[in-house]
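Hey, can you fold this one?
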Amino acid sequence: MSFDPRFAIVTASDSGIGKATAVALAQKGMDIGITWHSDSEGAEATAEEVRSHGRRAFVKQLDTTDLPSCAITIDLLIDDLGGLDVFVNNAGTGSGSLLIDTSYDDWRRVVATNLDGAFVCLRQAAKHMVQAGNGGRLIAVTSVHEHQPRIGSGSYDAAKHGIGGLIKTFALELGEHQITANAVAPGEIATPMTGQEDQDPHLQERVGIPLGRPGDAREIAAVIAFLASPQASYVTGASWVVDGGMLQMGPQAGSHLTSNDWRKA
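Sure. Predicted structure:
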């Protein structure tokens, strides 16, 4: 089966990794469905950039904690596009408290946003791909904390671990339909989520990361674009860590070391 992706949806593509991904896929010749949660202007700016590459763009609001509306929004975008070949689940939020200090409401907010909504959106996308019979790509943006936990991020860690398992199971169940499912696990990336909007990561030092700096959202988008391509036809059930080597340092050391002494024998 030849795979010729023409239609993609990227959730939370109003800024950061989502925006970079939407543009990267447009540059590969795909029309893009764009979603936003609270930044409609950012989403429209993404749409304009997609259109500047000669591709169509459609914009919808998506709240991944509102599960019934998730499926509806994905369906509407697929109708606008005229099909779906690539679905990138990028929507997410963080947390910042020890588990013993985490309220149930905050736990549910983080898990619902990161995991429950991801399940509904990925499932809906998969249903359309199976019905169309043309194969497809499911890609979830997770985190290095899909693989290693971090103090103060318990609900986030649990949700990202969960998406990792969800993607692996989709890979098993959808392989017969020539639909691949993979995760991309970024480290520290210079985006609004890390408080580094419009900052050049190459000018920032991170002594605890082997490459010595945060990542650029476009570096994550490049990996996603590969996984969305025909060339990635034999890659499924994998999690691609894109972190400048952070995980090799351990989840605490990577972003908390203050000296380069560790580089010495």
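The longest helix spans residues 104-132. Let me know if you want another pass with a different chain boundary.
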